[in-house]
């Protein structure tokens, strides 16, 4: 008996092979795209966490330097003009031409500075006082070099000025005389500028640096001897105090 052997041959045409290759490529591409998406999500999450950390830091700094006992803002210093020395300049309007009869080489203007806060200390430095009339600077002087102030403390400081510059003497005398003739009061603007550091009793190592700008209108000419001789005097004592953020300590 003869034995017969049958061979089976499997034939894969080119179309089937191409489809299988494309499916394999698509699967690989899907895996790569998924990896890229996961990487982008991780980067976005890191950026979000970094942003939250920055916002948290800003919030903590705000509470450290601006908020007192949870809700109260740190109060600015209270600054007033206390007095002017009696030896300051004197003007006479007794004659046709007004005359500065006293223009001393040295005279003082005294300030009172109070820290109204309980838990915050102030440190003042680089203070300079100036006096102007109609935006024209007449006097300027350095104040006490630097001083420290505990919570609720009050400090008195003096600013010593020199004589009024000679080019302004007649102009000021004439302006004062004109104000008197028109029934107006001659007023001078006083500025006190410098820097201030603020520290907390709880965390004294944390220091906030600020610029200090003080504006006062309380210096005026007061008349004696039948309203014909004028001297400097203090009217309204309270000053406007502004503090601005300054990163340099």
Distance between the termini: 113 Å
Helix/strand-derived category reads alpha+beta
Largest beta-sheet details: 9 strands, antiparallel
Sum up the overall morphology in one term. Answer: elongated
Helix content: 25-40%
Task: Spell the H/E element sequence.
Answer: HEEEEEEEEEEHEEEE
**Poorly predicted runs of 5 or more residues:** 1-12, 65-71
Pfam families: LEA_2 (PF03168)
Main location: membrane
Subcellular location: Membrane
Keywords: Membrane, Transmembrane, Transmembrane helix
Overview of this protein structure:
The chain is α+β, with helices and mostly antiparallel strands and 249 residues long. The protein has helices at 14-65, 166-181; strands at 67-68, 72-73, 78-84, 90-92, 99-102, 107-114, 120-133, 136-142, 146-149, 154-161, 187-200, 207-224, 229-234, 240-245. Mean pLDDT is 81; it is low at 1-12 and 65-71.
Please give a quick description of this structure.
It comes from Nicotiana attenuata. The chain has 249 residues and is α+β, with helices and mostly antiparallel strands. The chain has two helices and 14 strands.
């Amino acid at each position: 008996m003869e034995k017969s052997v049958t061979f089976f041959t499997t034939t894969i045409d080119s179309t089937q092979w191409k489809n299988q290759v494309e499916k394999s490529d698509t699967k690989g591409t899907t895996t790569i795209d998924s990896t890229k998406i996961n990487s982008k999500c991780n980067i976005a999450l890191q950026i979000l966490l970094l942003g939250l950390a920055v916002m948290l830091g800003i919030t903590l700094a705000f509470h450290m330097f601006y908020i007192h006992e949870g809700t109260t803002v740190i109060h600015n210093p209270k600054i007033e003009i206390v007095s002017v020395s009696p030896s300051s300049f004197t003007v006479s309007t007794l004659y046709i031409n007004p005359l500065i009869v006293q223009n001393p080489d040295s005279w003082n203007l005294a300030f009172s500075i109070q820290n109204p806060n309980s838990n915050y200390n102030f440190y003042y430095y680089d203070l300079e006082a100036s006096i102007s009339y109609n935006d024209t600077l007449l006097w300027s002087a350095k104040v006490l070099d630097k001083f420290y102030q505990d919570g609720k403390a009050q400090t008195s400081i003096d600013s010593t000025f020199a004589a009024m510059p000679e080019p302004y003497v007649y102009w000021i005398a004439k302006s004062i005389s004109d104000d008197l003739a028109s029934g107006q009061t001659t007023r001078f603007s006083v500025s006190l500028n410098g820097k201030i550091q603020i520290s907390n009793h709880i965390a004294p190592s944390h220091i906030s640096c600020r610029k200090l700008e003080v504006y006062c209108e309380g210096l005026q000419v007061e008349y004696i001897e039948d309203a014909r001789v004028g001297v400097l005097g203090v009217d309204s004592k309270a000053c406007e105090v502004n503090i601005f953020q300054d990163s340099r300590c």
